[in-house]
Structures are given as structure tokens and as C-alpha cells.
Amino acid sequence: MEFENIKGVIFDLDGVISNTSRLHSDAWHQVADKVGTEWTESLSNKLKGVSRMESLELILQASSLESHYNDQQKQELAHDKNKDYLRRVENMTKNDILPGIESFLESLKQNHYGLALASASKNSARVLEKTGLSHYFSEIVDPTKLSKGKPDPEIFATAAKLLRLAPEKCLGIEDAVMGIRSINAANIFSIGIGDKNILNEAGIVFENTELLTLSNIRSHFDKK
Ligand code: BG6
Ligand code: MG
């Protein structure tokens, strides 16, 4: 694969662009406490990239509680979590952009790459607004219009289509295992951010967002 063929970059939001993974996790922790599920790092990792209702199901399943709540009660728990999360989002500023991301976006823009957002979050537009990054993204996939969430390829395949690029001309960036699987299944080259043992299905893994630069990505391709 040639680096020169890449024309577009598709980003996950939570945990890649902004530190909102932490905010989601803190808000879910409250829900876990409320229903009596023990909050562990492994449960927190499992929720990454997963939709709101599926996340709630995973929390309930962790203590075999899924049948103890009816649909309306589940909607209420999810609603309360979202209210709590949005309260945290309202306090966000540019300081909540992960290190190096703004300069990476700027260099992609200067070099005329197409940029799209492929987030499972229904709150992604608000997070981009709060961090002042909306203007970088010409395309934002609306998760309410998708039939399947990550790890299905639909969200990343849709983003490539919106950019009018073949999947092979795109890179996808994710911090979650479910997200890496979605990128790979869409036939897009995947870049993981985080622990390389956890994200071992990714094409390349950078330990943190500061290492996410065009020259680091290019040197990976050149070595191949
Ligand atoms: C993903 C996050 O990006 O969006 C998950 O990684 C979150 O933690 C999911 O649950 C859905 O977000 P929202 O804002 O629609 O509840
Ligand atoms: Mg993420």
C-alpha cells in the first residue's frame, strides 16, 4: 500500500479527538453504581465505541440484571446517563482536545485530505462545537441513520462514501477494538490509538495522539 494513494482520513471522536471517553466512562460509572454492577476497567473498555443502549445492556448483563428492567426503565437509565454526560460536555473547552490532534487536523487540511467523522455518539456535533473543531470536518456520519453499530463496517464505509473516496484511499483512526474491527471490515487501513496489545488488530498503533503525525504514518508505510 502506497502512502501517496491516501486521500482521506476518517476519525472516531471519543478517545481520539477529545477526552470524552473519560466523560462517557464517568457517567456510565454512576449508572453502574445505581444498578449495582461493579465498575471495572475491563467493563469500561468494553463500552468504548458501543452505542448508548448497547452500553447499558452490557452494564446490566455484567450482573445478570438485563431482565430486571423493562424497556421504559432502560430508556430512563440511558436518558439519565445522557443528561449527566451532556452536563459534563457543557464544561468542555479547547483544553479537552487530545494532545497533538489540532495540529494533525491542521496539517491534513493544509495537505488537502478529505476529513470525515465516524462516531457512534449522537452528541458528536456538540463536542466538536465545544472544542471548536467543527470546521475541519466536511462530513459527519449521522449514527441515527445507520442500521448497525461498530464493529459493523457500515459507519466507516458510509464516511468513505460521503468523502467520495474508495475505502483503499482512506485511513481510519480509532481507540476502541470495536472501532478497529469496523474500519478493517470496511477495507480501510486502520490506525489504533492506545495499547498495542489491546488494539492488536489495527494496521498501526500509536501509543497516544501526540504520535499521530503525517510523517509518522508515512514512515510506517515506507517501511513496508
Ligand atoms: C461512542 C463512545 O463514541 O459513542 C461510547 O465511545 C458511547 O462510549 C457512544 O456510548 C454513544 O454515545 P452517545 O453520546 O450517543 O450516548
Ligand atoms: Mg472512541
TrEMBL record:
CDD domains: HAD_BPGM. NCBIfam families: bPGM, HAD-SF-IA-v3, PGMB-YQAB-SF. Belongs to the HAD-like hydrolase superfamily. CbbY/CbbZ/Gph/YieH family. This is HAD superfamily (YcjU). Its EC number is 5.4.2.6. Keywords: Isomerase. The keyword GTP-binding does not apply. Pfam families: Hydrolase (PF00702). One of its GO terms (molecular function) is beta-phosphoglucomutase activity. InterPro entries: B-phosphoglucomutase_hydrolase, Beta-PGM, HAD-like_sf, HAD-like_SPP, HAD-SF_hydro_IA, HAD_sf, PGP-like_dom2.
